[in-house]
Design brief:
The protein has 217 residues and is an alpha+beta fold. 55% of the residues lie in helices and 9% in strands. Strands 2-1-3-4 form a 4-stranded mixed beta sheet. It binds S-(P-nitrobenzyl)glutathione.
C-alpha cells in the first residue's frame, strides 16, 4: 500500500531539515519503505480537506490505505511498530526505546521549542532580555541531564532506535543556537544521527523540494 506524507510546499527554514516531515522521512528511510509526498501550502493546511486529516491544520500527516495519522510521535511509532529496524525485539528493550521517544517529545522538546519562540517571536519585546536567560537555563538543564545519561555511549539504550531518531530530531533544532556545542557528547550524538545514510536521504529529499534541485548521492 502506498504511503503518502504531507510536507510544506516551501519550508520556512528553506530546507535546513527542521520541519517535522524530516523525522517521518528519516523513519521511512531507516525501515526501507518508499513513500510519496503531497506538498501543501499554509493556506491549504487550514482548509477542510486537510483539517479532516489533521485537526490542527499542520504537517506532517501520514496516509496508508484507509489509515490517516497526524503527530510525528504517533507516525514514527506506527512506522517502527510495523517495520523492522527501529525498535528492538526484546520486550523490555522495546519499552525503553519507546520511553526515549516520549522523553524526546514530552521532556526535551518543550524547552527547546520555548527557546525558539522566545528568540524568534518574542525577541523584540521589552521584557525579552530579562526572560531569555531563564528560558536558556531550562534548555541547559535538560541538556545537562541528557548529556549525563548518554555519557560516552553511541546511542541512548543499546543499538540505534526510534528513541534516538526522535531525540536527535529534537536536538537538531538547537544546532544553529550554539548551545548544543556546550555538550560535546550531545553534539557528537547528533552528528552520528546526521551521518546515518537514512538521515542523509531524508534530508536530501526535503532539501530538493525547497531548492528545486533533485537529490544527489
Ligand atoms: N506536535 C506536532 C507534530 O509533532 O507532528 C507538531 C506539528 C507542527 O508543529 N507542524 C508545523 C506546522 O505545520 C511544521 S513543523 N506549522 C504550520 C502551522 O501550524 O500552521 C514545525 C516547524 C516549522 C518550521 C520550522 N522552521 O522553519 O525552522 C521548524 C519547525
Amino acid at each position: 500500500m502506498t504511503i503518502t506524507i504531507t510536507a510544506f510546499e516551501r519550508s520556512p527554514d528553506g530546507g535546513k531539515g527542521l520541519a517535522r516531515d524530516t523525522r517521518v522521512r528519516w523513519a521511512l528511510e531507516e525501515v526501507g519503505q518508499p513513500y510519496e509526498v503531497r506538498l501543501i501550502s499554509f493556506g491549504a493546511m487550514k482548509e477542510p480537506a486537510h483539517l479532516a486529516l489533521h485537526p490542527f491544520g499542520q504537517i506532517p500527516t501520514y496516509e496508508e490505505g484507509d489509515l490517516g495519522l497526524f503527530e510525528t510521535g504517533a507516525i514514527v511509532f506506527h512506522i517502527a511498530q510495523r517495520h523492522a529496524g527501529l525498535l528492538p525485539d526484546d520486550a523490555n528493550a522495546r519499552a525503553r526505546a519507546i520511553t526515549w521517544m516520549f522523553a524526546a517529545l514530552s521532556t526535551v522538546e518543550p524547552p527547546i521549542l520555548e527557546l525558539g519562540t522566545a528568540r524568534l517571536i518574542e525577541g523584540d519585546k521589552p521584557w525579552s532580555a530579562e526572560r531569555m536567560p531563564l528560558v536558556e537555563d531550562r534548555v541547559r538543564n535538560r541538556l545537562g541531564q541528557l548529556s549525563h545519561r548518554l555519557g560516552d555511549a553511541d546511542w541512548l539504550d543499546g543499538p540505534f532506535s526510534a528513541g534516538d531518531l526522535m531525540m536527535v530530531s529534537v536536538l537538531l533544532r538547537l544546532k544553529l543556537s550554539g548551545i548544543l556545542d556546550e555538550y560535546p557528547n550531545l553534539a557528537a550524538y547528533v552528528a552520528s544521527g546526521e551521518s546515518r545514510p537514512a538521515y542523509k536521504r531524508a534530508f536530501a529529499a526535503q532539501l530538493a523540494i525547497n531548492t528545486g534541485q533533485p537529490p544527489t548521492g
